[in-house]
Amino acid sequence: MNKLEKITRPNILSLVPYSSARNEFKGNADIFLDANENPFGELNRYPDPMQVDLKRALAAELNVSSNNVFIGNGSDEVIDLLFRIFCTPGVDNVITLNPSYGMYSVSAAINDVLIQRIPLDSDYNVQVDKLLNAVNPNTKIIFLCSPNNPTGNIIPLEDIELICSRFNGIVVVDEAYIDFSDSPSAVGLLGKNWNLVVSQTFSKARGLAAARVGYAIGSEELINLMNKVKPPYNVSKLNQKVALEALLNKEKYNQEVELIKTQRRQVKDELAQLPIVNKIFPSEANFILVKFEDGPKVYNWLLEKNIVVRNRDNEIKNTIRITIGSKEENEKLINELKNYCYEKESTIY
Ligand SMILES: *Cc1c(COP(=O)(O)O)cnc(C)c1O
Known about the structure:
Layout: H1 3-7, H2 10-13, H3 21-24, H4 52-62, E1 69-72, H5 75-86, E2 93-98, H6 103-110, E3 114-119, H7 128-133, E4 139-145, H8 157-166, E5 170-174, E6 196-201, E7 214-217, H9 220-229, H10 237-248, H11 250-272, E8 277-280, E9 287-292, H12 295-304, E10 310-311, E11 319-323, H13 327-348
Parallel strand pairs: 2-3, 2-4, 4-5, 5-6
Antiparallel strand pairs: 1-7, 6-7, 8-9, 9-11, 10-11
Helix pairs in contact: 4-10, 5-6, 11-13
The structure holds pyridoxal-5'-phosphate.
The site of pyridoxal-5'-phosphate has 13 residues, from helix 5.
């Protein structure tokens, strides 16, 4: 057994995947009487189960082979599949950082898998030794998020490589926000690290949160496992189409990412001038984590003005995660925060 097989659940290794009609058929045909579809309509046929066109375009974009790409119903499906492939419920455990993206804990709970959350240090860097010390023989996956949600900082590639080399399980690097960062993606480390999986999404920079398309990049062997376990038609024809169009429209993508990065600088500068702001954490994502004098109060104030931000007070006291919106939206936000400051001053004196 090789390293990957050793950590794969035996039932998954021996799984004979569902073979769909469209999977079995190869070649040219005019008449399809193989999948019990309705012969009439526009969306009457099952979609390509292997998303060949979208994968080819993604692979070209990422400079990998199509065999290294898995496409899922959002990155949330990627996360869940990894749990189901590697973690035996009630037995195995995973490790993540604290604070980080909430879905790792939720997916762990759904799969009855224990999750150990290793705190980031005061600058939100990974405490690599602490993280590696938490590994035990039943630890199957380490989830890293870079740039991290909600802190916004990147995990250095050296840390990721060190963790990959010292850990005999799967290392997931969730790069949902990598488009907004000036640092390179961990995709470049894939050739040297058998256990690395990078996940990205169409939900953020590509502007398709409503479509639900995420993807994982990893070794061909690991991608094969994911293909085996996924529901046969997990990405709809409509979603494959819009994702491919978004991928090919590079001009729109580049323009929007640049606009958001410019606005991120603008919002940061404006926030820095407000007396109620205690700290603005450096961000390489399309959001900024901000520490206020009284976070929950600011949160409620904005809510009263019909502006929803993300209250992170539970994770880090008095913090709010603010998404970078359009110029107009950001200006409204800053204006309401200024109003809050005036109001506050006039109640004190
Ligand atoms: C938003 C986000 C995602 C995206 O999830 P999808 O299911 O692809 O929409 C993934 N990871 C993190 C850390 C996120 O913040």
